[in-house]
Amino acid sequence: MARISTASKVTARRTAISRPLPEGVWGYILIAPWLVGFLGLTLWPMLQSLYLSFTDYDLLSSPKWVGMANYKDIFFDSGDFRTSIKVTFLYVALGVPLKLTFALMVALLLSRAVWGMPLFRAIFYLPSLIGGSVAIAMVWRDIFGNNGIFNRMLAAFGIRGMDWINDPGTSLYTLVLLAVWQFGSSMVIFLAGLKQIPRELYEAASVDGASRLRTFFNLTIPMLTPLILFNLVMQTIYSFQMFTQAYVITNGGPMNSTLVYALYLFQQAFSFFDMGYASALAWILLAIVAALTGLIFWSSRKWVHYES
Amino acid sequence: MVATLKSKAAGKAAYSIALVLGGVIMMYPVIWLFSNSLKGNADFIDGGLIPNTFVWSNYAKGWSAIPGYTFADFFLNSLVIGVLSVIGTVLSSAVVAYGFARIRFPLRNMWFAILMLTLMLPTQVTLVPQYILFKSFGWVGSNLPLIVPHFVAASPFFVFLIVQFIRGIPKDLDEAAKIDGCSIAGIGVRILLPLCKPALVTTGLFCFIWSWDDFLAQTIYLTDTAEFTVPLALRLFLDNSSEITWGPMFAMSVLGILPSFILFMAAQKYFVEGIATTGLKG
């Protein structure tokens, strides 16, 4: 009796091994690496930073619950929060539209297939690839410095330059310019989109006698709106996180004129070890970015044209 | 007739001039960087684009400018992080992307929506707690926090990129293989993996360049000069340098962007296609 049951158990186990795993289980096996990463390195840290934002924590002693004190400090105290918000919004509001405009203009130029297109595409894209490096940050300091090449070019036109990097009135604009210089990835996406617009539509437009300008506004732009939306969202989120350039080129100065949000957060966390305050800043950033992204998506119903 | 031809030619010329001029403006800072690396002190005060004397010794001077180390150490550190990150990212992203793109499992759409949401999550939100987490592992001061996350597909962008690519591969291939008795693992390895090569190469390239330039993470986790990467060494150089060492500093900056530059030149096509894919519906 007992022996029979063991035998049947063995055969049962054998069939379980030889039967292939159900597809659902396979799916979870395959996405397991990401799932582990998401739970351990994204979701759990997010929840933890939410908790920490209500505490006082310096990494040495254990976190002390302080309720809304961090948020109160941020909004009502004399800290540099308001300055950094202003600086960041200005940086994003100037940089992103300019970046997208250049990306679109250059993509249009390049899409009219001529000689050397791959070469020019490479030239216009390369800055996006190396723009985040310390090397480029150093070049920027040199170009816009007091006797940098930029001032000498102005001098050739009889204009007196200034110390662009070290003047609080202009320092942020040098960083905006650096961001605009990196329009390459948006440009490549627009370029791919332009290639996908059916030629017949253009032919039809020219048969109808539409001018180039009208074709651009009534055909090209509407066809590209989904990609404009994509680039707008991605570049906005990306610009809000700008750190390296501000850290290396100006370190937030002069007079906090380039104290972008990510740099302010970094200072609170890793210069003053005020982890609670920094976590609160992080959640405020998340709220701002989420609200803005939501706003862009909500407005997109009005201006994005999807082919049905 | 002649008039239209003339205006056409003029249009073409204007167009070419616009392109060339734009290209020159775009490349100017990069050219300036190369030229600065060969300048002596006098040229920094009032030199033009072309150095009056080419000071090749800047490179030798810069190479051993940080006492006790040479830039060979920093390049090796950067390379170790870069190569291991690429291996981790390509392996994990490919496996995860296959699961999302081809396998039906419960809650798939929910998980994928979450993945897409994390694509938009600012790094700063997880920066502090991740630091605390790695500190509790005793990893701060080592390169582990810069490498290990890559093995759990920490960049959703790459998973998304490969998913988009797999969606463009006809399903008939998988179906045919399935009928022939090929297992799920077999289909992944034998059919899709070879076809995904362009997407995997793109992923590897971007991952390498981004981890090479990931200044924020490097500056937080690497505390000991012996562990420093090239960007951190450059930053150290910058902080300790007066105008006298500008030439050598720019020389090392040139070497610092050289790997990205060479990779880009060698695999331009992949870069462009990779970026373009993500912006379009697959």
UniProtKB/TrEMBL annotation, chain A:
- Main localization category: membrane
Cellular localisation: Cell membrane
Keywords of the record, alphabetical order, are: Cell membrane, Membrane, Transmembrane, Transmembrane helix, Transport
Q: Which residues form a coiled coil?
A: none
Q: Which residues form the ABC transmembrane type-1 domain?
A: 85-296
Nucleotide-binding found in the keyword field? no
Specify the protein's topology with respect to the membrane.
Multi-pass membrane protein
TM region(s), chain numbering: 25-47, 89-110, 122-140, 172-194, 215-234, 246-266, 278-298
Q: Which family does it belong to?
A: Belongs to the binding-protein-dependent transport system permease family.
Kindly provide the name given to this protein in its UniProt entry. Carbohydrate ABC transporter permease
Organism source for this protein?
Paenibacillus thermoaerophilus
What are the leading ranks of the lineage?
A: Bacteria, Bacillati, Bacillota, Bacilli, Bacillales
Automatic annotation (TrEMBL), chain B:
Q: Where in the cell is it found?
A: Cell membrane
- State the InterPro entries in the record: MetI-like, MetI-like_sf
Alphabetized Pfam families for the sequence = BPD_transp_1
* Residue ranges of the TM segments: 12-34, 74-100, 112-134, 146-166, 187-212, 244-266
What region holds the ABC transmembrane type-1 domain?
Answer: 75-267
Q: Which UniProt keywords apply?
A: Cell membrane, Membrane, Transmembrane, Transmembrane helix, Transport
Check the record and name the PROSITE patterns matching this protein.
ABC_TM1
Membrane disposition: Multi-pass membrane protein
Q: Which family does it belong to?
A: Belongs to the binding-protein-dependent transport system permease family.
What name has this protein been given in UniProt?
Carbohydrate ABC transporter permease
